[in-house]
Amino acid sequence: MQYGVCNLSIIPLRSEATDVSELVSQVLYGEIFKVIEQRKQWSKIRLEFDAYEGWIDIKQYLEISKEDYTHIKHQDLKLSTDLVEFIQAKNNALYPIVLGSSLNCLSILGHSFDGDFTKTLNSKSNIINTAFLYLNVPYLWGGKTPFGIDCSGFTQMVYKLNGFRIMRDASQQATQGEALSFIEESEPGDLAFFDNSEGVIVHVGIIMDNNYIIHAHGKVRIDMLDHSGIYNVDTKMHTHKLRVIKKIV
Known about the structure:
By secondary structure, the protein is mainly β.
């Protein structure tokens, strides 16, 4: 078994071992993973944080030892909290990193960082404040950065920045936590899930006060939530059908 760390700002995680394959997620600076399969130019990895799998270019990561992987795995996450910051290499070269990048591997990579970060478990009340950092970020399938994010990448990163671990896809996140019977039982920071005509969970958002919801749909936006689903405040139409509300924390 081989182990690796992302030593670049953002790298694509793809469904197949080719540059034209679907973007299923992204790997941010400092994230560690196991290499579970290799081909000539590609490695299939399993991320430590959420066990998500996909293919990355072998030129876009650094191999680390099992000992380093295990050591980092058992540390509390130390995450950058600015939309964009820089880490500095030993040769003084600067590398951009984005909100939510992991800083636990700085010594292994020989990098330094003097920006803002968090490494503590925050209260649930801070989830909405963190969500506002992504407001108006454009929607990107497979994205999880301030330059493009999908609905479940948004909820995962907001929770991650507050010290809570949830899975990557909306359908996976819907299996976590405690189901609530009514919107009235929810509180800011709870997750609302939405399904399609086949009953498949396809969307997720974060519940706010006063029947509002913040979610990634075209962009990260704020809309109304009622018992039918999401009511788009611009088009005056319902866009997503409510399936279940979950209290994760």
